[in-house]
Amino acid sequence: MRAPRLILPWVVWGVGAIAYAIAIINRSSLAALGPAAQDHFAIDATTLATFPVIQLIVYAGLQIPVGMLLDRLGPTTLILCGGLLMTVGQVLMATVHEVWLAVLARVLVGAGDACTFISVMRLLPEWFAVRQLPTVSQVTALTGQVGQLVSVTPLALLVGAAGWMPGFLGVASVGLLVTILAALVIRDRPGVGTAFERMTGRLGRRSRDARSLASAASGESTLMPPPATSMIEITQPAPTAAPRRAGFWSRFRRLLRIPGVRLAYWLHFTSPFASHAFLLLWGTPFLIGGVGLDAAAAGGLLSVMVVSSMAAGLLLGPLSSRFLERRVWIHFGITIAIMLTWTAVIVWPTTPPLWLLFVLVIVVPLGGPASMIAFEVTRSHTPVSFGGFATGVVNTGGFTSALLVILGIGLALDLQGAGSPEQYSLDAFRIAFAVQIPFWLLGLVYILVEQRRTKRWMDFHGRRLR
Ligand SMILES: N[C@@H](Cc1c[nH]cn1)C(=O)NCC(=O)O
């Protein structure tokens, strides 16, 4: 009887993490299929580039609404909605030839993707002890990176061998299977049924057995439970009539009054954008059109990025849980290292040597795992009733900065007359990548400011980090 109860949190987490990996496969499914997509839809490079941008806008734009829904409907429902939206999106992608329908397909994929990560993150504190959370969160992100690897080579091979429609229908089918698995396995928290059990109105033995896990998990957090909702300042008088759910703006303002949430936002804003910009769009053009590498070498360096990010995740989880008080400084140090490495590449007097490019592709992706520290900070400072909302708000940080930097680099290339592959040059890329520097500086300054405010807030409320 004991073994299944101990295993259940890991089974729930495992299926959640696989759902996230599938979301990443869907998200990056066009990354290695640019030429195939251009052929299939008969589009130019500019139209192709709008696909990831639109998807990123949808993803970032939906984080806050999805976060609010998460607090009302729970993570299981949103993981299922996300899986279904992505499946429909990929079926559409597989079967249409019109560009506007392909854009609609990417919108659906972006919307489904937006539902997945923060829902899986919201599950974790319900199933794991506080001290395990940093490691489990990092391993969740690492599983997502496996999805990134799958979408680079195996998916391209599948589409190359089987064709566009079977390839994308294959991705949609795997997504549907994992969504069904999620309906059978994921529970919002111990003692609550799976989606399937809730639909049939019968709570299975495993779900009933898991009730005792709830008290075990909350027992540990009573040492320093999450802040109470009442700790968030309310400026308007409380209503005397029957309590109504606070509206969006009221909740948003209350959330942003917590300095720890603002700190988490800036942590997420500052560290991952360089990696996103490089992996999602500008890395390959820079390495081939700027540095002069061939496609195989450029692809190899991009794969090193994914491996470096995964290895860092394994290290950073235990490290940030062991050095709780220092986790913001660990993040700060990593961001400075990323900024200095990029600055060295930008100011290098000749073509950057291969060893420097290796340092770049090892250091820049550390920003992804470092950004997971933002979710730890969010958890430490947010009342449970605001958990999904706060995670959504914080998760917009890195995606907003990535979007602005991706567009900024494109604009800087265009302004120099170097916006197309025939016109690319190393000097134009140097200037274009320098667009990142103000974003790092802005983020670092705000981290310092909000870290001081957070410390004062904690002292005032007599709180300790958890
Ligand atoms: N910054 C990422 C997480 C990450 C960890 N390692 C590499 N990336 C993040 O916030 N992800 C959210 C998502 O939806 O993927």
UniProtKB/TrEMBL annotation:
GO cellular component term, pick one: lysosomal membrane
Keywords in alphabetical order: Lysosome, Membrane, Transmembrane, Transmembrane helix, Transport
Keyword Ubl conjugation on entry: no
Chain ranges passing through the membrane: 7-25, 45-62, 74-93, 164-186, 263-283, 295-316, 328-348, 354-375, 387-411, 431-449
InterPro entries from the UniProt entry: MFS, MFS_dom, MFS_trans_sf, MFSD1
Gene3D superfamilies tied to this protein: MFS general substrate transporter like domains (1.20.1250.20)
Compartments, record wording: Cell membrane; Lysosome membrane
Membrane topology type: Multi-pass membrane protein
Domain of life where this protein originates: Bacteria
The keyword Transmembrane helix appears for this protein: yes
Pfam (any one): MFS_1
Residue intervals of the Major facilitator superfamily (MFS) profile domain: 12-455
Catalysed reactions listed for this entry: L-arginyl-glycine(out) = L-arginyl-glycine(in); L-alanyl-L-lysine(out) = L-alanyl-L-lysine(in); L-alpha-aminoacyl-L-histidine(out) = L-alpha-aminoacyl-L-histidine(in); L-lysyl-L-alanine(out) = L-lysyl-L-alanine(in)
Entry GO MF terms: transmembrane transporter activity
Stored SUPFAM superfamilies: MFS general substrate transporter (SSF103473)
Family: Belongs to the major facilitator superfamily.
Record note on quaternary structure: Homodimer. Interacts with lysosomal protein GLMP (via lumenal domain); the interaction starts while both proteins are still in the endoplasmic reticulum and is required for stabilization of MFSD1 in lysosomes but has no direct effect on its targeting to lysosomes or transporter activity.
Function: Lysosomal dipeptide uniporter that selectively exports lysine, arginine or histidine-containing dipeptides with a net positive charge from the lysosome lumen into the cytosol. Could play a role in a specific type of protein O-glycosylation indirectly regulating macrophages migration and tissue invasion. Also essential for liver homeostasis.
Protein name per Swiss-Prot or TrEMBL: Lysosomal dipeptide transporter MFSD1
Organism: Leucobacter tardus
